[in-house]
Amino acid sequence: MLAGNDGVDLACDAFIAAINSAPSARQFGLERQQEEAISNQSFVRILVVDDFTDWWHWILEKLRENRGLQVIGIASDGLEAVLKAKELQPDVVLLDIGLPKLDGIGAARHIRKVAPESKILFLSQETDPDVVRAALSAGGNGYVVKSSADRELLAAIEAVMLGKMFLSPRFTDHGA
Prior knowledge:
By secondary structure, the chain is α/β, with parallel strands linked by helices. The chain starts with 5 loop residues before the first helix and ends with a helix. The protein has eight helices and six strands. It has a six-stranded parallel beta sheet, with helices on both faces. Strand 4 (119-124), helix 6 (129-137) and strand 5 form a beta-alpha-beta unit. The longest helix is centred in the first third of the chain and has 15 residues, at 6-20. The chain has a single domain, classed as 3-Layer(aba) Sandwich (Rossmann fold), CATH 3.40.50.2300.
């Protein structure tokens, strides 16, 4: 799953280049005032990326517990995540690892290029320390294990928004 595939990477790079050449919102008539209003919002704008519908429904409910958080998009595969990250420029991308079309680690590398200001918080069931290291090396600002998300997700979002790294405590105890 995590091994590099040059053919897939080349195709993704070509795909991202095509996305980057697409017209911007301003070219479609979005006025400067509207852009400023969007950028001055006081809530954290979140893109949720997971291919399991029941899981992202749970995430939406969990995030509703905090008025300062707003889900602005949902993607169900890695390529869609890259597209939506470029389009929406979210503050935080909640990113699973096991995704179709492009895994989360590959998606994170591309998201870093198209939405460099976005914080990437991996939210995955993967607990292998090598996978966690690969996720963080790909540009992740944090890593939460899904089984701990009920207790850790909101704290993780807050930490990464403050510029801190967040790791589920199970990894800090085992040297991930």
